[in-house]
Design goal:
The chain has 164 residues and is of the alpha/beta class. It is 22% helix and 35% strand. It binds NADP nicotinamide-adenine-dinucleotide phosphate (NAP).
Length: 164
């Protein structure tokens, strides 16, 4: 299982329920990477998508404590353990499972992921949602980083971290 996330220079990921920045190249990377695979998310992240709709061409697993929650085109589960079981069942041997947020789901699922695909924006935004700082974690190591890439607010890098 992998985690995919876009962070700013303080490892912030969101503000007031929304993403911090628009970065077309990163959106395309996210789409290409996750399409055809399984994505696991919290209820608030689902509701942050356009129309609150699940992502196309992916198996969407949504975690909520609301037993009567239902959304067309998504598997609804009530715990992280149930999400992992459902993801395993859907992924079988040929699909990857991506944990796609938000903050509460990253926090609970990071330990059981083996790789983190981190898009790092070299700018600090106003934020209220954060990802654990992997550079300060003894459990993760930076495996690769792209060259500097441009987006409207400055530069960013595609990084891969591996769980030790
Ligand atoms: N930069 C990025 O890559 C990225 C990616 C995704 C999201 N984000 C940002 O992250 C922010 C949202 O993060 P968030 O932490 O507020 O929301 P979230 O993790 O998307 O969703 C939280 C909700 O998930 C459910 N949940 C979480 N843990 C659960 C558990 N153990 N059992 C049952 N239900 C559980 C609860 O839903 P109920 O309240 O329905 O019970 C909870 O309110 C937004 O700003 C979003 O834009 C950023």
């Amino acid at each position: 299982m992998k985690v995919i996330v876009a962070v700013d220079s303080n490892w912030a990921i969101g503000n007031k329920g929304a993403l911090l920045a628009r970065n077309k190249e990163d959106m395309q990377f996210f789409k290409t990477t996750t399409t055809g695979n399984v994505v696991v998310m919290g209820r608030k992240t689902l509701e942050s998508f356009p129309g609150g709709r699940p992502l196309k061409d992916r198996d969407n697993i949504v975690i909520t404590s609301n037993a009567s929650y239902s959304v067309d085109g998504a598997y609804i589960v009530s715990s992280v353990d149930e999400a992992v079981a459902k993801a395993k069942e859907l992924a079988l041997s040929d699909k990857e499972v991506y944990v796609i947020g938000g903050a509460s789901i990253y926090e609970q699922m990071l330990d059981i992921c083996d790789e983190a695909l981190v898009t790092k924006m070299n700018k600090a935004y106003e934020a209220d949602a954060f990802f654990p700082n992997l550079d300060e974690s003894g459990d993760w190591e930076l495996y690769s980083s792209s060259e500097d890439k441009e987006y409207p607010d400055g530069t960013f890098n595609f990084c891969i971290y591996k769980h030790k």
